[in-house]
Amino acid sequence: YTGEKVYPLDLEDLIETVDEVDKAIVVAEPDPDHENALVPCCFVTLSKDIDIEKLERKIAVIVKEKAASYVRINNIHIKDTFPKTDIGKVDWKKLEEEAKVLGKKKQ
């Protein structure tokens, strides 16, 4: 889906409909298939324990069924908590940096 705009908030809302997901944050990480391209990845906190492979399958199914045909989640990263800024908001920049590092490790 090179060149298509993916809106994080729409994906986050969709992923948060999965029972085991408490909160989802979607950021960009390097695309392993296309140099200098970015793809969505997701950081989640869980409300219930679940095997990561089962969670990935559940999220893949719901994204395929309910999102635009070109949308997919590249990786799912489980976190206990999200990093916060000094004023208590989710620190998107830290998550984006973490996604870049994690994305490069998987290439």
Tell me roughly what share of residues is in helical segments: 25-40%
Oligomer: single chain
**Average pLDDT:** 88
Report the biggest beta sheet as strand number plus sense, adding barrel if it closes.
3 strands, mixed
* Total DSSP E strands: 3
**What is the global morphology?**
globular
SS class: alpha+beta
The SSE string, one letter per element, is: HEEHEH
Distance between the termini: 18 Å
The number of distinct helices, counting runs of at least 4 residues, comes to 3
Low-confidence stretches: none
Strand content: 15-25%
- Biggest sheet strand line-up: 1-2-3
Cα radius of gyration in angstroms: 13 Å
Which keywords apply here?
107 residues; 21% strand
Describe the structure.
By secondary structure, the chain is of the alpha+beta class. It is 36% helix and 21% strand. The chain has helices spanning 8-15, 52-66, 92-106; strands spanning 21-30, 38-46, 76-78. It has a three-stranded mixed sheet. Strand 2, helix 2 and strand 3 form a beta-alpha-beta unit. The longest helix has 15 residues, at 52-66.
Secondary structure blueprint with pairings:
Elements: H1 8-15, E1 21-30, E2 38-46, H2 52-66, E3 76-78, H3 92-106
Structure in a nutshell:
36% of the residues lie in helices and 21% in strands. With 107 residues, the protein is α+β, with helices and mostly antiparallel strands. It is globular and about 30 Å long.
